Amino acid sequence: MERVAAPPGPPGHAPGIARDARRVLTDNWTGTSTVPSHGLYPHQWSWDSAFIAIGLRHMSPLRAQLELETLLAAQWRDGRVPHIVFDPAVPRGAYFPGPDFWRSSTSGRPAGAPRRTETSGIVQPPVHALAAWLVHRADPRASWRRGFLARVQPRLTAWHRYLTASRDLAGDGLPAVVHPWEPGMDNSPCWDAPLAHVTPADPESFRRADLHHGAAADRPTDLDYGRYVRLAVDYRAGGYADLGRPHAFAVEDPGLATLLALSEHALAEIALALGGDPRPHLDEAARLTEALVRRLWSPAAGQFLARDVRADALIPERSAAGLLPLALPDLPEAIAAEVLRTAEGPHFALGSAAATGLVPSYDLLGPAYDAGRYWRGPAWFNLNWLLERGLRRHGWADRAERLRAAIVGVGAASGFAEYVDPATGRPRGTRDFSWTAALVLDLLADEDPEGGLG
């Protein structure tokens, strides 16, 4: 099979790659935030903005602060940070589901949705506190001068409280997602079984806009999309309430839980910097890590698996989200070593010389593996960035350096693609994708990759 994106080593190519990455972030900047891409994703996305801010801090710490502040300004009164903040200047039909579908300012009123800013009603993984801490460290003097940490801390704390309280649907200590878009891995095969009993919305009731900007073979199927629409319509009809009502889809995801625990470590750093007590956040991070191991660790699989809350059973599908707990500083070393073995084994082929060296989003040996279709197999740069941090955290510096070189090399060679074929590096999805450029830029920066955490 032809390889179209062999990863060059970063050192010799770094100046040109960094220049190109900065150009992507400049082109996608709107004045207050960064779109993932102008065609396919013309609004502000939640976890995209967090990853984007991590790269932007090397270009302009002020812009990185504004990126996060713009997103958090759309936070709901119940603490949730919506997964999309809609730009009123974008034509209504440019993206589906848009503001006319979510109706946040009316249907979301019981949960405290903003009155003057239209958003979606669901969430995405909580990378924001980690991003805020890294952005602060990029230019502490400017951050203190603007009062950045003091302003975002209460919003980030409320965001975490929403997830740990309102989304603990099983009462077992872990947040649950109520829509496949919430863990960020939208059409992962992990969701196939929990989605199977969801009746799709009438295909005549909605019109997809994503297929105007992306190949149908790369995107979720119409059947999956119909189920996504049904879940969102039902959630909207219930006023976006969480506890005390039935959810047709309820899943505990190891990726979201990992990022919440990791961001609690970041909130501890923020509290300490502001003269507060970091211990409550460290205790919460430890509690989340314990619950993650207790609820989602599978010794048989050698990795973490998602749990279907309705069935109270682990979902026997392997995704890269089950490797992300490597990023946690308090993950037991025996479990970390087993996760590494799984990552480097045939299911994910981390570091394989026969491929790009990147981890795919889904099990290479899985029955639903598809190298080109969205989250059903392609390699994504944000997941690999998190794994690179995890490898360094647990002392596997050589492996981390190889993964760093692969992310930078494949990212640049693919034109900063949204995602790539993990075997060949062939770019898929859209190009000039913001978080790909941002995370490549971050990995090129000469600094402590731990960011002071852990």
Automatic annotation (TrEMBL):
Please list the residue ranges annotated as the Mannosylglycerate hydrolase MGH1-like glycoside hydrolase domain.
41-436
Q: Which GO molecular function annotations are given, in alphabetical order? A: Glc3Man9GlcNAc2 oligosaccharide glucosidase activity
Short name of any one Pfam family annotated for the protein: MGH1-like_GH
Q: Which domain of life is it from?
A: Bacteria
Q: Name one GO biological process term.
A: protein N-linked glycosylation
Q: What's the protein name?
A: Mannosylglycerate hydrolase MGH1-like glycoside hydrolase domain-containing protein
Q: Which protein family is it in? A: Belongs to the glycosyl hydrolase 63 family.
Assigned keywords, A-Z: Glycosidase, Hydrolase
